[in-house]
Amino acid sequence: MEKTFLMVKPDGVQRNLIGEITGRFERKGFKLAGAKLMSISEELAQEHYGEHKEKPFFGELVEFITSGPVFAMVWEGEDVIAAARQMMGATKPSDAAPGTIRGDFGMIVGKNVIHGSDSKESAEREISLFFNEGELVDYQKDSLAWVYE
Ligand code: DAT
Ligand code: MG
Questions:
Q1: What is the pLDDT of residue 34?
Q2: Which SMART domains match (predicted)?
Q3: Cα Rg of the chain, angstroms
Q4: The sheet that has 3-8: what strands, in order across it?
Q5: Which among 61, 66, 88 is the best mutation to test ligand 1's pocket, defined by most ligand atoms within 8 Å of the CB?
């Protein structure tokens, strides 16, 4: 099954949105494979957002993501990478559709509540950046018989 890396950003943690956000993925039918509340070091932030290091907002992005704890998660399911991106909504909350996480809870691009991997490659990279193998749990979830054929 496909896996993706999702993270409630510091603004989402401070605004009590961990439960709301995890609940959406849980209710949809995805399976939680790992989760932890953690602080992101400067080094991890720079590595995670490496693709943006030449962008003018890189400094602020690193400062923001290290400004408080994040809730890091790995979710599993059919097409979970693309589906989670849809459930998150557009990067800029004012472009994000109502019903999406950023559409419902975000106001500005610099505080857009959630991160999600955008491809298979970034999902693999980000999962291994944030989680050790031993932190991911492989288990049977019986309710999935009522989610899939
Ligand atoms: P996404 O988080 O939707 O994958 P991204 O990878 O393009 O978006 O950018 C990573 C984060 O950087 C994004 O969630 C918020 C911030 N960001 C993106 N574009 C920005 C901009 N023009 N000004 C300020 N911050 C920006
Ligand atoms: Mg991105």
A1: 98
A2: NDK
A3: 15
A4: 31-38, 70-76, 3-8, 114-116
A5: 61
Q: Which residues contact 59 (CB under 8 A, 6 or more apart)?
A: none
> How do residues 36-92 score in pLDDT, each as one tens digit?
999 999 999 999 999 999 999 999 999 999 999 999 999 999 999 999 999 999 999
Residue 31's DSSP bridge partners are 76
Instruction: Please indicate if the annotation marks 100 as binding a ligand.
Output: no
pLDDT digits (tens, 9 = 90+) for 130-144: 999 999 999 999 999
**Residue 118 Cα: closest atom of ligand 1:** 4
Instruction: Tell me the torsion sign for CA atoms 125, 48, 19, 27.
Output: negative
Q: Rounded to whole angstroms, how far apart are CA atoms 35 and 33?
A: 7
Mutation pick for ligand 1 pocket among 4, 46, 57, 94 (CB with most ligand atoms within 8 Å)? 57
